[in-house]
Every structure is written in structure tokens, then in C-alpha cells.
Design goal:
Nonspecific Lipid-transfer Protein, Chain A, Winged helix-turn-helix transcriptional regulator, 3-stranded antiparallel sheet, 10 helices, Arc Repressor Mutant, subunit A, WH_DNA-bd_sf, 2 domains, transcription, DNA-binding, 219 residues, transcription regulation, 5-stranded mixed sheet
Length: 219
């Protein structure tokens, strides 16, 4: 396989050669949620051409990052152990990038996979100590859920029947996650709709936070 190289004997250089091409890390993000068919991947990236998707999948399969497998008679793509080792890296990049998020741009969309990874990457385990609760998060047509059992998070796609609390935050979700708006303010101003145990809402907000990068002391 012909590929571009940076001509440097460096681990970061090799990593970027393998997964630094356009769309590659977003494909990995979605596969970290779970195996996907080619159709699943294509539908998750409406601005990604089929040719480029095919190229990225071939490249990452060549490098041992992902592999093809059969699931229920259909061909799917899933990460190898080597590819799954990118989990912490992808989540750290997501946290870093979230610090620069402002209002959504007109062309921006959200997907189940992106929001599941957003919950995982912003999860504050220390705020979940001793907590067992279940949440459903409705973001327009996108619905995901989160279960916290003894402080351990499991996030997934779709509704969660019997969830302790259903949250519909509208456009305020990012403001809640950055403490630009408090849970009380969101409720008092009608920006959020809650169904179920509303007393869990402040705890829910505390579980998923985008923290600013600490300012280093200068000398």
C-alpha cells in the first residue's frame, strides 16, 4: 500500500501516518462504541464520500487498527485490540476539543455515537461515588442513555425504559457541562424538560463536565 510518510523515526509520526488522515479518528470514535456495518458508518458521516470511507477502512485494516468480521450474516467492521488501545487517546482528544466548542455551526450535526463518546469522555467518576441511577438523554431525534452502577458508567444508544430520569436539555447541554448555567437556572428558565426523579438532575449534571485547562504558573 502506498502511503505518505513524514520521514521521522518517531512514535507520534507513525501514529499520524496510520490514523491521522481526514475522517480516520472519527471512524475510530464510532467503532469504539461498537462494531458497525459499512452502511452504519456511511450514514453516520453524511459528508464523507463512499470512496474516502473505503480508503480509510482499507488503510486502517492494513495497519491492523480494524478488521472485518461477520455478525448475524452481515459484514461488519470492528477495532482490533491494537485499535481499541486508542480509546483513552480518542477520549482525551474529545475532552480537549470540547473546550473550543461554541454554538453549533449551521452544518453541524450530532449522532448517537458522538454523544455516547461525549458522555464517556466527560464522565466524572469521582462525582459518581456510590451512585446507582439510570438516565435517558433526548437531543432532538438522537436518544441515548447512561447507566451508573456503583459509580461505573455504561452509555449506549436508544431509549432506556424505566430510566430514573429522562433529560431533554435542548441547546443548554454544553452550558450545563461547562457550568455556564446551573441546573437550577436551567429548570427555572424552562430550558430543560425533566421526566422522572427531578432531584437527580443536579447529580446528572455533575457527572458530565467539561473542565477548563488549568493555567500553568509562569516564572
Amino acid at each position: 500500500m502506498t502511503r505518505r510518510t513524514y520521514g521521522q523515526f518517531c512514535g507520534l509520526s507513525r501514529a499520524v501516518e496510520m490514523v491521522g488522515e481526514r475522517w480516520a479518528l472519527l471512524i475510530i470514535r464510532d467503532l469504539l462504541v461498537g462494531p458497525k456495518s459499512f452502511t452504519d458508518l456511511a450514514e453516520g458521516f453524511p459528508r464523507l464520500s463512499i470512496d474516502v470511507l473505503c480508503a480509510r477502512l482499507r488503510e486502517m485494516e492494513h495497519f491492523g487498527v480494524l478488521e472485518e468480521s461477520m455478525k448475524d450474516g452481515d459484514m461488519t467492521y470492528e477495532l482490533t485490540d491494537y485499535g481499541r488501545a486508542l480509546d483513552d487517546i480518542v477520549m482525551a482528544l474529545g475532552r480537549w476539543g470540547a473546550l473550543s466548542l461554541e454554538d453549533p455551526r449551521p452544518e453541524d450535526i450530532i449522532t448517537e455515537n458522538s454523544m455516547i463518546m461525549a458522555l464517556r469522555s466527560t464522565y466524572q467518576a469521582e462525582a459518581a461515588a456510590g451512585l446507582t441511577a439510570s438516565f435517558e438523554l433526548r437531543l432532538g431525534e438522537v436518544i441515548i442513555h447512561a447507566k451508573v452502577v456503583d459509580g461505573v458508567l455504561k452509555a449506549g444508544a436508544g431509549p432506556l425504559p424505566g430510566a430514573d430520569l429522562v433529560v431533554e436539555p435542548g441547546p443548554t447541554l454544553k452550558m450545563l457541562m461547562t457550568n455556564e448555567m446551573t441546573p437550577v437556572q436551567a429548570i427555572d428558565t424552562g430550558h430543560v424538560t425533566l421526566t422522572g426523579d427531578a432531584s437527580l438532575f443536579p447529580r446528572f449534571v455533575s457527572l458530565f463536565q467539561i473542565h477548563p485547562v488549568p493555567v500553568s504558573a509562569t516564572t
